[in-house]
Amino acid sequence: MTQTITVLPGDGIGPEVTAGAVQVLKTVFHLYNHDVRFVEKLIGGAAIDAEGTPLPESTVSQCAASDAVLLGAVGGPKWDRQSMKVRPEQGLLGIRKALGLFANLRPVSAYKPLLDASPLKREKVENVNFVIVRELTGGLYFGKPSERRGQNQEEVVDTLAYSKQEIERVVEKAFQLAEKRRHKLTSVDKANVLESSRMWREVVDRTAGRHPKVEVNHLLVDSTAMQLIVNPGQFDVIVTENMFGDILSDEASVITGSLGMLPSASLRSDSLGLYEPVHGSAPDIAGQGKANPLAAILSAALLLRYSLDMDEEAALIEQAVDEVLNSGCHTADLKLNTEQSVQLDTAGMTEKVIETIKRIAHVTGGAPSI
Ligand code: NAD
């Protein structure tokens, strides 16, 4: 049966990096004889320009009917005016909501040639390989009421609300992920203060009963913020609520020192997911061939793993990216600590990854069609 990936290139460097990721995916599908088609749709500023809305209905229906969605980035100075009623970011929030995506995954792992780009000492970063699972649909960012009160509006209230079911589904997702990885789950909360965190803990403990192979520990969010700097190598899967996850995942993203390398996935209970680089549309370098396509390419690897159940193919892409960096190839944003380095543009880096994928597949005989 033909599977469908909807591609939402978006704005700025979005189209450049998604083009690279699509080329890589096409190479892998060809090597493994997979029947997958791509459909491109508008989102963000590009959709505002063409249709007056950042999220056209046809984009939503196409995404909903596909097996996975690959997104570039949205936004840019052209659509930044305060007076604009519609903004590109509404497209991004809208598509996550329309698809009911509730778990945001951000893997963080160290690449040897990039170790010196980290603000942390080399030995702290060497063994970093973890994933943050952030709840996306509840908590403070969606609390009602959220308003100013009092005669002179001198009081303010924001509400942190969660239903048990909202906690259960994201925690279950995180346990499933831990089972596929190193079987270690850290649940992050503020149970010494917040009632919502105490319910979170209860759900985690109950869910642990169904996953006896996963070792669970609870950590307070303030302590986690410290541990991510002191000993980031200790983590495997971290699961937490929306706002804690927002803050911790940005903290974690600088550990490996390179925005252009960070992929992400937004998932729900079935296999449909949305995959995008963590970086934005980088208007300062758009159209110049300077964009690093690796975060988008690594997002494509996550797409294979989580939406298309193609673990081997995902690992092939990740191995190729690793080998390309180890060989000294890099884009302008990456500072490599290797003796001989070769700077490539967006197309050159994409080509190098594709070349390496073909070589690995050929050597291992892993891909059936070769
Ligand atoms: P940004 O991530 O776009 O750029 C930050 C810096 O990193 C810039 O100097 C940029 O050149 C560089 N950079 C980012 N990705 C790169 C890549 N792949 N290769 C090489 N260099 C890269 O963040 P920003 O400048 O704060 O935001 C720019 C626009 O992107 C804004 O309109 C913002 O709203 C939007 N944005 C979108 C998303 C998204 O679509 N998910 C996320 C963040 C920001």
In short:
The chain is α/β, with parallel strands linked by helices and 370 residues long. The chain is 41% helix and 19% strand.
User: Tell me about the biggest sheet?
Assistant: 10 strands, mixed
What CATH architecture label of the largest domain applies? Answer: 3-Layer(aba) Sandwich
Low-confidence stretches: none
Domains, number = 2
Structure description:
The protein is of the alpha/beta class and 370 residues long. The chain folds into two domains: 1-103 and 266-370, Isopropylmalate Dehydrogenase; 129-144 and 157-254, Response regulator (Rossmann fold), CATH 3.40.50.2300. Helix content is 41%, strand content 19%. The chain has twelve helices and 14 strands. The strands form three sheets. It has a ten-stranded mixed beta sheet with strand order 2-1-3-12-11-4-5-10-8-9, sandwiched between helices. A two-stranded antiparallel ribbon has the order 6-7. The chain has a two-stranded parallel ribbon with strand order 13-14. β1, α1 and β2 (36-40) form a beta-alpha-beta unit. α1 packs parallel to α12 and α11 crosses α12 (346-364). The longest helix has 19 residues, at 14-32. The chain starts with a strand and ends in a 6-residue tail after the last helix. The model has no long low-confidence stretch (mean pLDDT 95). It binds nicotinamide-adenine-dinucleotide (NAD).
